Amino acid sequence: MLRTPQLLDHPRMWAGRSSRVVRAHPLLTIVVGVVVVALVVVLARAWATRGGDLDEALRLSPAEATRVSFTDWGGIRERVGADLDADSTPEEVHEMIDEAYTKDLTSTSVLPDASGLLQQHFGWSPATLDWELYTQSTEGALMIGHLTDMDADHLVDQLTSMGFAAPDDDPADGGVWDGSLVPFSTFTDSGIDSTITPQLTYIAFLPEHDLILASDGRRYLSDQVKGLGDGDLHEPMTKAAGRLGDPLSAFIYDGDFTCGEIGLSGASAADQDQADGLVDAAGDINPIAGFAMAAEPNGDVRVAMSFEDDDQARTNADTRAKLAVGPAPGQGGTFDERFKLGKVAAEDEVVTMQLQPKNGTAVLSDLANGPLLFATC
Q1: Average confidence (pLDDT) over 84-92
Q2: Is Membrane one of the keywords UniProt gives this record (predicted)?
Q3: Between the CA of residue 193 and those of 187, 188, 273, what are the distances in Å?
Q4: pTM (predicted TM-score)
């Protein structure tokens, strides 16, 4: 199993201070205003370059991707209070992964089980990545990682020392490194409890963009490096993802994947019969065109579903809100045992639902597998 900012203090910091009004000199007011504006600009730029930007990551996604997962490793490290860097030990990285796992923040990543090995031998890991994007389609799978201030020479040395075959093209400019013959088991004898994922068999990096790319298919990776960012992800997926804000981790699916993988097609006959009855009682539902679900920094989970038009969105906001507080056939129990349903809204063709997990329930990873709530077919 994959173990898959507070920038300024809150108004409470002023509690207990005198309420006496002090009139500032006009010039002082102007100067302070300029300083505040400058500070806001600096903070905004720092945030924009920190990584963890879902919009930025999605712009790099292959156009044919039908399933996308995003993990904001910089944000997750902040969330769990982990102060890690390139010199951290594999054990410290595993501690961070374990803590993030308990908060249901790692199910979107393909890296956690390999984190110790990555930290010690690859020169990067969840301890240093800003964010990770993992995409799947019928053509192949791709991992993209953003690593601020990438040291290309160091990455070349690390891969060479592990036995990766160097690319024919410039190894520091998108050439594909071949790890298909690397005996990864020999790198775990030092006591690192890591399992390498096949998605790291072939690796490329683009230092000018601070990007690492990896796949289990050499040709697919080479093609993606050459065409990185050239296509647009399916519009229904981007419409749903656009309502997620700035999440710590997220799943984004197209309609066909949502229908086939997280509906009730694999449930028992009894569960499907119960689900049919619940749907009939709730009202009309329509197929989901694009689906997104994310873990937010405050602990909530947000769901976004795009539909064919705004009429369908309004209809499904009502019916799916009813389903979200009832039984959960195929999963057991009820949804209101798992989360408290917050605001449900339809805006244009997208429905958003705010879910507040109860008692540490792993709502994000739980709802990504077979729930009635997202029955579509």
Answers
A1: 94
A2: yes
A3: 10, 7, 44
A4: 0.83
